[in-house]
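hey so i finally got around to running both of the ones u sent me last week. sorry it took forever, my laptop kept dying halfway thru and i had to restart like 3 times lol. anyway pasting them below in the order u listed, first the sequence line then the structure token line for each. didnt double check formatting much so if smth looks off just lmk and ill redo it

first one:
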Amino acid sequence: MRYIIGIDDHDSYNLGCTTHFSVILLSKLLKNHNAILLDMPYLVRLNPNIPWKTRGNASIRIEIEFNGTKKELADLIFSYSTKYVKEISFALERDRKPGLAIIEYNNYVRSLSKLNSFYLKGVSDVIPLDYAKRFAEKTDIEVRGDRGIIGSIAALGVYGAYTYELITYRKRENWLKKRIIDTESVKRFDEITFPMTFANYDYVKENPFIIPHGSDPILYGVRGTSIEDLLKALHEIKTNEDIDFFAIFKSNQGTSIHFHKTGEFFYQEIKKVIEVRSVEVGKGGDVLIRSTNNDILFVYKETGELNNAAKLLKAGDKILVLGAIKPSTKYEKIIELEQFEIIELNDIEYTNPKCPKCGSSTESLGRNKGFRCKKCRYIIKSSSKVIKRVSRDLSLGVYQTRIYRHLTKPLFLELRYTNKQFEDEIKFLDLFRAELYKINYVL
């Protein structure tokens, strides 16, 4: 029987990782239960604004052939899940609430439209657990666990454009040790694989983007659009420790799918055209933009180029903003900007006219009372100011944060799918199946 499986919330802030669990699970299912992996695993990034989720907020989708019922498979996977969160990630002690969801393939095909809608809601909104459970019951999805059920169901419905991520995992004895990765090798890898890989290195702060900061099992992760180029990382990137195992996931990262469905409520994404009323630069460099409709927008210093561009905006500029709606104790509701597109620049200034006699500047005599030359004191009876075109240090177009969110599509990234890419997926799937049989992880 063919099944689609969703898994979520097996990580914690210090130990464990849902992707790590998914690879170990696949190894167990193939080696111990004669399952067959039918497609590459899928790393599904969900709403990045959920405050109780980790910054990456990811679930996993797996497609397998399994000789057993949906209930038997759910019980089997949940037994491995329970062992992982108790013995490896200690997720339950850190308020994680793992879950899983399983749907038969034929039912998946029939329910695809509903599943896709649930997925989009999971990427862009907040989904209550009760809603997810009712959805599972109506759609005949077998679920186990708690809050992780939400992301697990969302993973079942992932669709559309995708990229890949190669993730390497550390041996357990190294988890609490500092990661040491040769930064020059990361830069070399970036140079030889760009633009087929992205977000590898921060050339402003001279730090690799590929290294996580916690004590989780991941050594490094590399994102891109070419499996062939991603695999080069295993040879090009130099570390001081042996890799335990690795995987390449399909992923919705780098697709900007989170802006496919927008809203006006907290923790939703928003996409709207505004007219700038004022721009304020804070002491730390953060930029506060107020719109003529009383929107409060923040562009943080860490966004780099986006922050620099925001400082140059002025009243009258029209921009298309993309960002996240967040609650604020000071402003009640704010929009944290991820990107904006300048649609119209206000390049007009109204100035006092020059003196027609001596050419000097003038001063206003008051509302509708004309102007007086500051030098020769000549009176101009006209009260009309002069329209002056001014040069701006901005141009029409899109400005984006330097530090990408997982879902953000870099401006240069082209998502095209070729026959070679599909052939590479098939080749990797054969390689990955063989690698899964080599994993010996005690659960």
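and the second one:
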Amino acid sequence: MALKIETPLTVNAYINGEIVEAQDHAPRENPAKPDETAGYWPKNTVGEAKQAIDSADEAFKSWKHSEMKDRIERMQKGIQKIKDNQDDLAKLLSKEHGKPIYDAQGELTVSLMFMEYAVENAERVYKEEVNEDERGKNILRHDPIGVVSAISPWNYPLALSTEKIAPALLAGNTMVMKPSPMAPLTVTLVTQMVAEEFPDGVLNIVNGDADIGIELTSNDKVRKIAFTGGTNTGRHIMKAAADTIKNVTLELGGNDPAIFLDDFDVNDEAAMRRVVISNFLTGGQICMIAKRMYVHESIYDQFVEKYMEAAEKWLRIGDPTLEETTVGPVNNKAQLEFVQELIEDSRQNGYDIREVGNVADEEFFNNGYFMYPTVVLGADYDARIVAEEQFGPAVAILKFKDDDHAVELANDSELGLTSSVWGEEAHAIEIAKRIEAGVTMVNTAAIQGLDIRYPFGGVKQSGIGREYGEEGMLEYVDSHSINIPKTKDLPHIPQ
């Protein structure tokens, strides 16, 4: 059933099966037109967050015993509601986030893809396993954990919310979702749409600032935290979870390296287009964007030439609602200023700064949170533009001498989310195995190389646990082993 989704849209908390009208709402601006309001989100109180947690805790008592068939049917109804409203949801997401309409549609596709994967595989993944041999019998159960607090970021808000909702509820957990204030509207609306298909209290949503996040991560009734966001926030969440030893899944920041080997074909136009997209999709505001580019010195000059040509062709900056636009504004003013600060630092250090892309409407561009996609050449390996995650439309291209040097540079980071290696496939795979990352892609990068059938997550300070795939689904259960040995006694114990 299609809903009527118009902006500015006002959303509210959904707690224990009811819409809870907030006393105070905050505006969410349209980053392409900051004077325009995309909608209003509720500034929920800590008391309302506690109410949502209490409702989820009470609902868990019965939901954990529900039949898998019932869980699947309910989730399928929620998925269908998203499909029925897919176009309007994409428009809303584009308006509140700033991502171009094709990108918003792509995020809806990724969201639905994993929700359907979870539905199709839930019975198999969460099935009780029985093993028996001459030594005895074991029953391995996958028990739901309890109340899950889910906190999603602003950069890929819907996909990074639904990837938590689907496996958590299918496993028999209950949940309280909190979206980012920088992209709250679509997540709140979709969460409510899904929640309406489940018993009261199984899925709840609240909005707010840090005080709400603190309650969701420290409340004694919360048994698991699923968080996607920055590494610094992840550290605070781990501290909050420590007092009650909560189960945590943390998908944190990444400063993702891309290595271009000496056998990479710089004349492959399709590959070079993929490289540009891997840097500037969603305006570079994705955790798995290629953010540090290391190119073998023997192909460096030609690589830069062909890269700039490809960038000029693909980068069309402007109104996110237009189909021809490939890059929209930065999501918020603070992030725009941070990226500009990195570029200014590069300029002060004498690096070669090159703006790329085409702007159709300069006046529109100047009135929003826009900036030209920027390539930095000649930077030092420890420059801020290299060492810090930009999370915006800027990237540095650097030289390396040989394979060992490339691996050393790629691994020189406290982060290790994704990476990519480009070149002759066998050679690239050999190098990929040496990279310290949770995911490494070959001859592609970013969303282009994502496969939701396999686990995704980081190493080092890029996180704990995995999302997507069977491994991601198992993050929402506790293994419970029931042993029935044939020999009940230990043979060496004296009578």
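quick thing i noticed on the 2nd:
The mean pLDDT is 97.
anyway thats it, ttyl
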